[in-house]
Amino acid sequence: MDESDVGPAPEAVASRAKDRSPWNWLLFVPIVVPLLTPLFNRETPRLFGFPAFYWLQFAFILLGVGTTTLVYQMTKKRG
Amino acid sequence: MWRDHLTEIIIFTALFLFVSAMGFVAARWRAPKDMAHLDEWGLGGRNFGGWITWFLLGGDLYTAYTFVAVPALLFGAGAAGFFAVPYTVIIYPMVFLVLVRLWSVSHRHGFVTPADFVRHRFGSPTLALVIAITGIVATMPYIALQLVGIEAVLKTMGLTGEGALARHLPIIVAFAILAAYTYQSGLRAPALIAFVKDTLIYIVILAAVIYIPYKLGGWGAIFDAADAKFSASPAPNDGVLLNQNNQLQYITLALGSALALFLYPHSLTSVLASKNRDVIKRNMSALPAYSFLLGLIALLGFMAIAAGVTPLPGAKPGTVDNNTVVPLLFDQQFPGWFTGIAFAAIGIGALVPAAIMSIAAANLFTRNIYKEYLRRDATPAQEANVSKITSLLVKVGAVACIVFLDPQFSIDLQLIGGVIILQTLPAVALGLYTRWFHRGALIAGWAAGMGLGMWMLYQIPNPAAKRAHFGGSAFPLEKFGFDTPRTVYVGLVAVLVNLLVAAVLTLALRAAKVPEGVDGTTPADYFADETDPRVGAEPREQSGAAVQPAPQV
User: Fold this and answer.
1) Does B255 map to a domain?
2) Which domain holds residue A59?
């Protein structure tokens, strides 16, 4: 822990390169879709008695989980 | 009368005592060599793995108040209250990359609070003080609101008497116990209790969403009952769907709330307590399990409509307390023993976030006020001690808020809290990506956003509660002169103005060659992981020499 640690450590710089990835752009999908209310502000079709407004927003949770999992797996440091 | 609820009270009390014992024992859980350090007391040793972080963050973000207030919103207004679901969906992809940067730079420099980061990044103790005070002020009413959650349960069990003291005695006792074990065990206490809390919540809610619709004739019948209620009500903006006028509000509220959530000091406390970047990234995929739960909980509001629940009277004559609908629904539908478990889930659900919030507020005071302004040479042991004592004071303050003020005041303050914590977005969240903003401009932007936000909140009436000001966070656009009945979330407008002011003034201050302070971080700091070394044991002292010569803003 001496003063020379202040500069960018080589391993940190290497991990920086791995932090950037085109996969990250996918994260915008589950951010934008749940905010487009005209897309899901409707009564039909109902699913198990749930109006579309409700079950579609539950489905967006799965969209969010799917996307973050995919991005995590694709950008994970290997080795 | 409380005698009718004896089974519930016994089970509630037993579970409450059980987790209290856990809270005290937690001090020895994953025991550190030396507890007298803020990293140990305030961040649980910065060493929590995936599961602990999942329970801790889940217990922290999805609070008892959420469990009580969101269904109350659906009960009262319908679809507009469901914003909590998109809000907790978009939050995780939004912060997926941001939080790991914050974790890395905090790990490398030993930051405990968001204000620690800002101080170092922008070389401005003043800006850090502004961020710290904003955080403390936004957190205090949030803690008080957790008490509102417990109180809704106690009220339903008939445990609250008349008179100011009798009404609040059970809460004072509960909070005294909470304060004692938080003092003793620090962040380890809520981390351990969160396991019990979340397990109870999952059991209760899964049982509720299977059993109650079965008793009420299915989900279709529940939504139809809600639709019938809102069709009959004279209010213009309720219904099981959104209408033309409240969609913008729905979108801006979901977005604004999501931006605010991880600016709250208590969220960051739980994030910084995790042991590496991977733990955070994996949690961003796993935490939406709680959003699913929250969505189901929200629908309890509609179940209460279908079951014909009438809320208990509020504190003021002639008003009703919609926060009691979920406890009443449980009381009406479940057998006594299971209602006891459900109430314990809500009650314990209040303790976990209350503990984390008080720790976060105490850390802010210790690091950014005490150490910065009162005692610059404080040792880690002294820091931990000050934090412990501050956490007690914070809880006394929260109880005083509830006992001496109208609970409505806490709800108003929490509403304001969301708006004001958003004003730290440019310095904290954008600061993680860019050093472009000038520290003076950030302070000015903060002031502009705060001023506008307060003015807008002041302008909002609430006809239902017969209040002229601070009646909600939906600002009618016609007050800006637009010819429309639409409303917008105050926080988002305020933070946009904040950003605009910060950007314009940055250009102006730079043109005027006002000193910008020294950036104490390097680009590589934002990608450091577990194995990367700290920059000195005491980063503050080390870089102090570099920061001093620059004039302070």
Assistant:
1) yes
2) 24-79
What residue ranges in B452-542 does DSSP mark as E strands?
A: 474-476, 487-489
Question: pLDDT band at B499, cuts 50/70/90?
Answer: very high
Number of domains in chain B: 1
At residue B422 the predicted structure's pLDDT band, cuts being 50, 70 and 90, is very high
* Per-residue tokens: B446: 């903060």
Name chain A contacts of B85, Cβ cutoff 8 Å: 34, 57-58, 60-61
Give a yes or no: residue A69 inside a domain: yes
Interface of B with A in 221-240 (CB under 8 A): 221-223, 240
Whether residue B107 is contained in a domain is answered as: yes
Q: Which residue of B has its CA nearest to A4?
A: B535
| Token pair in block for residue B540 | 């503050």
Q: Which two tokens stand for residue B349?
A: 């659900």
pLDDT of res. B540 = 40
* pLDDT (average), residues B165-181: 81
Q: Using a CB-CB distance cutoff of 8 angstroms, which residues of chain B are in contact with residue A42?
A: 241
| Residue B541 contacts A where some CB pair is shorter than 8 Å | no
Q: Contact at 8 Å (CB) between B321 and B91?
A: no
Kindly state whether B97 is in contact with chain A, defined as any CB-CB distance less than 8 angstroms.
Answer: yes
CATH code, domain with B147 = 1.20.1730.10
Structural domain for B241, as ranges:
38-516
Decide if B381 contacts B436 (C-beta within 8 A): no
Q: Does A79 touch chain B (CB under 8 A)?
A: no
Q: How many domains does chain A have?
A: 1
Q: Is the residue at B180 inside a domain?
A: yes
| Residue B18, in any domain of the structure | no
Kindly list the residues from chain A whose CB atom is less than 8 angstroms away from the CB atom of residue B532: 9, 11-12
Mean pLDDT for the stretch of residues B327-350: 87
Backbone angles phi, psi at B533, to 5 degrees: -75, 155
Picking from A14-18, A74-78, B354-358, B417-421, which range would have the lowest pLDDT averaged per residue? A14-18
CA distance B365 to B523: 28
Residue B315's pLDDT is: 65
The confidence score (pLDDT) of residue B537 equals 46
DSSP B372-395: III-TT--HHHHHHHHHHHHHHHH
In this complex, which of A3, A24, A51 lies closest to B223 when CB atoms are compared?
A51
Count of other CB atoms within 10 angstroms of residue B191: 26
Looking at the partner chain, which of A35, A42, A46 has a beta carbon nearest the beta carbon of B90? A35
Task: Name the least confident of A2-11, B147-156, B406-415, B515-524.
Answer: A2-11
**B156 Cβ neighbours under 8 A, 6+ residues apart:** B5, B312, B324, B327, B328, B331, B343
Q: Does the model's ipTM exceed the 0.90 cut? A: no
**Contact residues on chain B for A49, CB-CB shorter than 8 A:** 218-223
Residue of chain A whose alpha carbon sits nearest to that of B224: A49
- What is the mean pLDDT of the segment spanning B135-150? 84
The C-alpha atoms of residue A54 and residue B292 are separated, in whole angstroms, by 11
Interface test with A, best of B90, B212, B242 (most A CBs within 10 A): B90
Do B240 and A68 make contact, defined as CB atoms within 8 angstroms?
A: no
A68 and chain B in contact, CB less than 8 A: yes
More confident of the two residues A1 and B66: B66
Greater confidence (B264 vs B8) lies with B264
Residue A61 lies in a domain: yes
Shortest distance, CA B320 to any CA of chain A (angstroms): 27
Inter-chain residue contact B522 with A8, CB threshold 8 Å: yes
In this prediction, residue A1 carries a pLDDT of: 38
